[in-house]
Every structure is written in structure tokens, then in C-alpha cells.
Design a protein that fits this description.
five-stranded antiparallel sheet, 163 residues, 8 strands, three-stranded mixed sheet, alpha+beta, 2 domains
Length: 163
């Protein structure tokens, strides 16, 4: 078995590097369909100085042994058996799937610092600098209100609506 790769990620973009083989894989565009099949785009690069960087780019079903073995076989046929492509692809899929399924860390809102006083563009309807939503039952003038705010919005100074 080969040594595990160095793995770092930002959001859903992952980079795995096998230093002993001078190979790096960039994994992006991770997509899970309605049957929980997970696909990703994988770009393999060589990290050997003074050699071409690009090895191959492929879209891979990361939950299919057949797809992983077929990709490993294609790479072995192109680049030889000195690199254990099957083991590398298995490690890549296992590590990226685990990170993808773990998700982002939970944030306890009760532990977050408050940002300070809220600044309104139209008090108390439109908060300045944030997306705003007008919601309510039908026939309650949401569309009319939004239209009036949109037409006059460029000239709005902070003001108070209601009492």
C-alpha cells in the first residue's frame, strides 16, 4: 500500500499530492445525483521540474469501483506501471468523499458576536447592505411596495415607514 497523500481543501475544491510519485490531483465540481452517486472532475498533474505538468483530466463516478478501475487502467496503459494509479484513485475517492460528506463545520449562532446596530435604508422594511425579502399573504401589496421602493430606491434617504 502507498503512503496517503497530502490533502487540503477549500470548500468543495480538493488538492491531493503524492510526493513520492510527484503527482498532484485537483478535484472540483463535486456533484451528487438523486441516487447518491457522486461525480467529480479530476485534474492530474505532474510536479516534476522541467517536465510537462498536465497528465489528464477526467470526470469520475467516485462511488463506482468499475469507473475507478477503468480510469486507473487507462492511466497505467499511458504512463506505465511504476505509478500505482489504482491505489491513488482509491485513496483520492475515499478521502474526498469523506470530506465532502462531512460538510462545513457547525456554527453555534449563540456564540457569534453581534455585528452592532442594524442600519435601515427604509426603517423597518429595508436593511441597508443586505438582501431583503417582502413576504406575506396574497393581496397585501407586496408587489406594489417592492415596485415603489425599486423606482424611488435610488433617491431614498433613510426614512421611517409606519408609526
Amino acid at each position: 500500500m502507498i503512503q496517503p497523500p497530502k490533502h487540503h481543501s477549500v470548500g468543495s475544491f480538493h488538492v491531493l499530492e503524492w510526493e513520492q510519485y510527484k503527482i498532484k490531483a485537483e478535484v472540483s465540481r463535486i456533484y451528487e445525483d438523486s441516487h447518491y452517486t457522486t461525480f467529480a472532475e479530476i485534474l492530474f498533474k505532474a510536479t516534476v521540474p522541467d517536465s510537462p505538468e498536465f497528465i489528464t483530466q477526467t470526470r469520475l463516478n467516485m462511488t463506482s469501483d468499475t469507473a475507478m478501475l477503468r480510469t486507473a487502467k487507462n492511466l497505467t496503459e499511458r504512463f506505465g506501471e511504476k505509478i500505482p494509479w489504482a491505489d491513488m484513485i482509491t485513496q483520492l475517492c475515499r478521502d474526498v468523499l469523506a470530506a465532502h460528506r462531512q460538510g462545513e463545520p457547525m456554527v453555534m449562532l449563540s456564540e457569534c458576536e453581534e455585528e452592532g446596530p442594524v442600519e435601515f435604508l427604509v426603517d423597518p422594511l429595508i436593511v441597508k447592505g443586505y438582501p431583503n425579502i417582502l413576504f406575506g399573504d396574497g393581496d397585501t401589496n407586496k408587489t406594489t411596495t417592492a415596485g415603489l421602493l425599486a423606482v424611488g430606491g435610488h433617491a431614498l434617504e433613510p426614512c421611517r415607514v409606519g408609526g
